[in-house]
Every structure is written in structure tokens, then in C-alpha cells.
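Appendix B. One record, verbatim.
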Amino acid sequence: MALNERLSKFKQQQERCQTTLSSIAATQASTSKLQISSRSRPVNAPSAPAKPTPAIKFSNDTERLQHINSIRKSPVGAQIKLVIELLYKTRQAYTAEQINEATYVAINSNKAVFDSLRNNLKVQFDGRRFSYKSKHDLNGKDQLLYLIRKYPEGLPVVEVKDAYPTVLEDLQALKESGEIWWLSSMDSQEDIAYPNDPKSKIKLDADLKQLYREIELPRDMIDIEKELLKNGHKPATDTTKRRAAAQINGQPKKPKAKKKQKEITKRTKLTNAHMPELFDLPGGRTT
């Protein structure tokens, strides 16, 4: 029986039960009030107004069934995303039944979902269980460092950022300890990790060194900032903005540097005393 038909019948059963129980509760309340009033109330006393009967509360199973139905009617891509998020966060292997219990994605009854999940690059299927698959199978910081040292020309961070949940924290720790170089750019997809290992030596040709020395930097700081932006780097300064602010507010005058006065010390006099011939005056007098 389809899920929609089951849900419709369940709603009808709830409505019938609601009507029956409300009728029973109202009858019982009316009977008990008549019995109490006949015992304690005087014959000519006015009757008290009846309290409203509280609504009968049922379980939230209807809401759960509606949620399941909405997931199974969603596009295949949305269902695959739910499964991959489960596999990525837990890093455990699940059967189709376990995935159904955790995400309500019915893999066995939906061939399109099953085939898409089995052929996904981020999913490994051993014939019974599904698990998350990253490009590099790593389990900790030591294995991460060992892998980076295999790539003296640099390892793209995007290739290892999903290897395990704390890989980015370990990359930062390796950078702070000086064991790797982590070069970042405006686009995180282009971050590169380089090994900082004495065994990994990079040789540069003399022609490349000479070419580097011959590069002439722009004279204006604005041109330097433009070149940095063109190559995907964010400048630490904004000369255009600073100059515009200076024109509006006026350029602050730089304080004039005070000239240091020469101080005559005892050592100066002693030094001069060793050279009396420089200070002889006519008549044998000295300064």
C-alpha cells in the first residue's frame, strides 16, 4: 500500500476516534455533574456553567509521516545530499536499512537513488554498506604531514580538506609549528600546502634567479596594489582610499625633527688634551 493511502486512512481513523472520544467524555462529564448537583445543590439553586472539555491529544506520528513523505518525494540530488552529509559527519559505514532509519531515504526502493549513490565519487560501496570516501585516506596529523612531504611542489588543500573532520585544524597546527608552509589566496580552492622539510630541497636555475632580480616593481603603490589584486592577492593597504581621505581632511603635517645638540663631555676634553698642537695659539697660549 502506498504511503499516501496509509496516511489518508490514518487521518480518517484519527478523526473517527476524536469524535467518539469527545462524545464519551462529554457524556461522562454530564452524568457526573448531574449526580453531584443532585446530592449537594439545593432544589432551587441555579446550575453552574459546564467547563469546556479539553481536546484529546494524539501522538505526532502524522507529522513524522508527512516528513518522510516529503523526503522521499524530493529530487534525487537532495536525497543523495542527506546521505552524504550523514556519511561525512559520522565517518561510519551504513547499510541501506540503517540509512533509511537515520535519514528516511529509502535506497532499496528507489533505483535512481541507489545507482546515483553507488556511483558517487564521495561514496564507497562494498556491496552491503555505504561509507564516505575522500581522495586521500588519512586518519590524523602524522599521516597528513607524511602525505604533504611527498609533494615538494605543493599539495592543494582542497584534496585533503575532507579527509577527516579535524584536518583543517591539523593543517593550521603544522603551519604554526613550522613543519609546513600553507599559502592562502582569495579563493580557498587554490590554497597550497608545501613541506618545510630540510630533506625537501628545491633547486632553482640561475636563469630563473636572474629573471626574478630583473623584475622591476611599479613606482606607485597604487600600481603595486593593482598587480596584487590581478594575481589574486589582497593588499594590506588601500592607497587610493588613504589618499582620498587625505584630500578631504587635509594632509597632516609631519613634525620637524629636532637637531641634536652636541654635548661636550669630559672624554671630549681629554681627547683634545692629547692633541695640543692643534690648539696652539701665538704666544704659547692654548685654548
